[in-house]
Amino acid sequence: MKTIILAFVAMLLSGTHAAAAIKIDQHQARNMDEVMSLGVIYINHNFATEQEAEEAINDDAERHAARYYRSILMREPGSNGNMHVSAELYR
């Protein structure tokens, strides 16, 4: 519960709107009783930076009405550092 409160306060301080999905890590997802997995999304696009990838994941999470997401960033060998991303969404 403390994790949820801290994440909510961080969201308010960052200036994002209330419907924004909150990024959590695997440890938080396991320890938050009220979190239910909605499944994994895959974004078929190469991203040059982690920030671009995180923004795309957050946008997709919001479209799926997810309250939380855990991003999975994957770099492909020989792809100039570009990333393919996926994320597990939670409600």
Description:
- By secondary structure, this protein is α+β, with helices and mostly antiparallel strands.
- It has one domain: Flavin-binding protein dodecin (Dodecin subunit-like, 2-Layer Sandwich), CATH 3.30.1660.10.
- Strands 1-3-4-2 form a 4-stranded mixed β-sheet.
- Strand 3 and strand 4 form a beta hairpin.
- The chain starts with a helix and ends with a strand.
- 20% of the residues are buried.
- The N terminus is likely disordered.
Write the layout of secondary structure elements.
Layout: H1 2-14, E1 22-23, H2 26-31, E2 37-47, H3 50-63, E3 68-75, E4 83-90
Parallel strand pairs: 1-3
Antiparallel strand pairs: 2-4, 3-4
In percent, how much strand structure appears in the residues? 25-35%
Poorly predicted regions:
1-18
Please summarize the sheet with the most strands. Answer: 4 strands, mixed
Total helices: the number is 3
Which CATH class is shown? Alpha Beta
**Cα distance, first to last residue?**
15 Å
What attributes characterize this protein structure?
91 residues; alpha+beta; Dodecin subunit-like; 4-stranded mixed sheet; 3 helices; 36% helix; disordered N terminus; DUF1471 domain-containing protein; signal; YdgH/BhsA/McbA-like_dom; YdgH-like_sf
